[in-house]
Amino acid sequence: MGEGFWRPHTEMFQTLNGVVDNIWMTACRIASRGGLAPGERLPPNLKGQIGDGYHFCRNIAMNARCNVIASMNDQDVPNRRIPDGCVDAYEGALLCFKADGEIAWAHHYALHNGE
């Protein structure tokens, strides 16, 4: 995500229809409605497009006909290797988009004890 893959590509997820139940997107602010903050600039190596992440994730859910769970916040990835099949600890708001594009749930997670 963010490397040349954006909203017009969400139809490719139709091939996952009936194959997966959930898609987890751990990318920073992938479900955010905002673009860049005032004064913020794109990294020079970014190949994607700034857009509405909420609609991006919603379209993926509708095309794949499954739940899409996606972050609305930046993430702090620790300087350590994360084992295969795992994700790092998460802090912030998550949205779960249902297969019909509606929100199933929203939850805010906080790290405890400095974890």
Largest sheet strand order: 1-2-3-4
Question: Overall 3D geometry?
Answer: globular
Structural class based on helices, strands and sheet pairing? alpha+beta
| Percent helix | 10-25%
Question: Would you summarize the structure shown here?
Answer:
The protein is an alpha+beta fold. Helices cover 10% and strands 19% of the residues.
How would the blueprint of this fold be written?
Elements: E1 22-25, H1 53-64, E2 67-71, E3 92-97, E4 103-109
Parallel strand pairs: 1-2
Antiparallel strand pairs: 2-3, 3-4
How would you portray this structure in words?
The chain is an alpha+beta fold and 115 residues long. The chain has one domain. It contains one helix and four strands. It has one helix spanning 53-64; strands at residues 22-25, 67-71, 92-97, 103-109. The longest helix is centred in the middle third of the chain and has 12 residues, at 53-64.
Labels describing this entry:
single chain; 115 residues; alpha+beta; 1 helix; globular
